[in-house]
Design a protein that fits this description.
Blueprint (H helix, E strand, L loop, with lengths): L1 H18 L3 E8 L2 E9 L11 E3 L4 H14 L23 H5 L22 H6 L18 H15 L3 H10 L19 E3 L6 E3 L15 E3 H13 L7 H7 L4 E2 L7 E3 L4 E5 L2 E10 L2 E8 L4 E7 L8 H13 L14 H4 L3 E5 L2 E7 L5 E5 L7 E5 L5 E3 L8 E6 L5 E6 L2 E3 L21
Pfam family, one: Beta-lactamase
InterPro entries: AmpC-like, Beta-lactam-related, Beta-lactam/transpept-like, DUF7586
Protein name: Serine hydrolase domain-containing protein
Length: 446
């Protein structure tokens, strides 16, 4: 790790020196545990530590998003509900909860009034009262348009359902169970002060810091490198007591793209997404006057990376991906050891070739009673299927996501064919003995 650590520190040092950050910290983690921490610059004359607080800005949105999904899982709301069902009296009540979470509601990016990030906040009544017909910039669902205002409304939705301010709900239901002891709504010592760096001279200007009040769900929270690493690990792997892994996976599904031509960046439900050199990363960026932060995690191999700085402008987003690339180059992940997995004999008999018409597919048994179905050496649709208690399987991804796979048996109990949402898969190409839709030519193959 010594060579890797030096390479990571060098990249961090280059960033701090070239972009003139008053202080800059970064951390790399594996399986939720820190494996490297680096810091450059000073905070109040001392070296920053993994416990030094920085403002994390819009990374706050990921915690608000998880809280909204908790409400959904409890049956208190549906993602297709219009906002007006839970928060009446706004001119944007037609936007759905899912659209607000994914920034596709069409709302203006910023609230009316002076620049909210540098001025004292107002309460929800004043904020909602200032909205008008111009608050909606696009038709709901039409396109990605990042909206801080949208998350302010989601924060109030949380407060209405929980009967307490949103920070209190997030603290008791998310922050404390995950042990994020350094994550707070307002700063606590030791914390970095926010600065602007003069563009043409090496001098600093202190940035103001206020309680954003109604806009706080868009970027209020402070955190430390150690806490942010734990949070990124949660977004990648989950913890059932806080949010089910299935719901977190749903949050990480791309709901929209913000660079549709290349699909390197997108948004799920409260979570930013990025593709980088074969990795599909989940996390978020954050910026507030005087502060910048980035955190990304790869759910596939549970590697995470983050950085935080106390400057308004200048940090390059490539820093975190460069740190990941250095880790991959010096210490690539080692696959876990394969081990056999018990298989039910009745399912074992189902594995192997199946045919959708003339197209050859193979059915494989996954750990547990789950299945995968995919083409053999040619084009076709692949999906994984999760076993259900009624003896059917539910499609998890691809074309068949959400569809049902069932076994159709003969009178003697043996399996005749697979029925996948009306598609019939047989043991022989166009088996004349199976109920192939449209029938099979009586003369057979010729």
């Amino acid at each position: 790790m010594e060579v890797t650590a030096r390479a990571l520190l060098r990249r961090l040092a280059i960033e701090q020196a070239e972009t003139r950050m008053p202080s800059l910290v970064a951390m790399v983690s594996r399986d939720g545990e820190p494996v490297w921490f680096g810091a450059r610059g000073t905070v109040e004359g001392a070296d920053p530590t993994p416990d030094t607080q920085y403002r994390i800005g819009s990374i706050t949105k990921t915690l608000v998003g998880v809280q909204v999904m908790r409400l959904r899982d409890e049956g208190l709301l549906d993602l297709n509900d219009p906002l007006s069902k839970h928060l009446a009296g706004t001119p944007v009540g037609d936007a759905t909860i899912a659209q607000l979470l994914s920034h596709t509601a069409g709302l203006t990016a910023e609230p009316p009034g002076p620049w909210w990030e540098r001025t004292p906040g107002v309460g929800i009544d004043a904020l909602a009262g200032a909205l008008d017909g111009g608050t909606a910039r696009h038709r709901p669902g039409r396109r990605f348009h990042y909206s801080n205002l949208g998350f302010a409304l989601l924060g109030e939705l949380v407060a209405r359902h929980r009967g307490v301010p949103w920070p209190q709900a997030v603290r008791s239901e998310i922050i404390e169970p995950l042990g994020l002891n350094d994550t707070t709504a307002r700063p606590r010592e030791p914390h970095a002060r926010g600065y602007a760096v003069h563009p043409w001279a090496d001098v600093l200007l202190p940035e103001p810091e206020h309680d954003a009040v109604a806009m706080a769900p868009a970027g209020q929270l402070w955190s430390s490198a150690a806490d942010l690493a734990r949070w990124s690990a949660f977004l990648a792997g989950g913890r059932e007591a806080v949010l089910s892994r299935a719901t977190l996976a749903e949050m990480r599904e791309p709901a929209t793209l913000d660079d549709g031509d290349t699909w390197t960046g997108g948004y799920g439900l409260g979570i930013q997404l990025m593709r980088h050199r074969g990795r599909r990363l989940a996390g978020h960026g954050g910026s507030m006057p005087g502060f910048l932060a980035l955190t990304w995690a790869d759910p596939a191999d549970h590697v995470g990376v983050l950085c935080m700085a106390n400057s308004t402008y200048g940090l390059r987003a490539s820093l975190v991906t460069d740190l990941l690339d250095i880790l991959d180059a010096h210490e690539p992940p080692i696959p876990g050891a394969w081990s056999p997995s018990p298989a039910d004999p009745d399912l074992l008999e189902l594995t192997g070739p199946w045919y959708w018409g003339p197209a050859a597919y193979v059915l494989r048994l996954l750990p547990g009673r789950d299945l995968s179905l995919g083409p053999v050496g040619g084009p076709g649709r692949s999906s994984r299927f999760a076993a259900r208690a009624d003896g059917t399987w539910l499609g998890l991804d691809g074309y068949y996501a959400g569809e049902t796979l069932r076994l159709v048996r003969r009178p003697d109990g043996t399996v005749d064919h697979l029925d996948l949402n009306t598609f019939v898969f047989t043991r022989r190409p166009y088996d004349p003995g199976a109920p192939v839709p449209g029938g099979v030519d009586e003369a057979g193959w010729r």
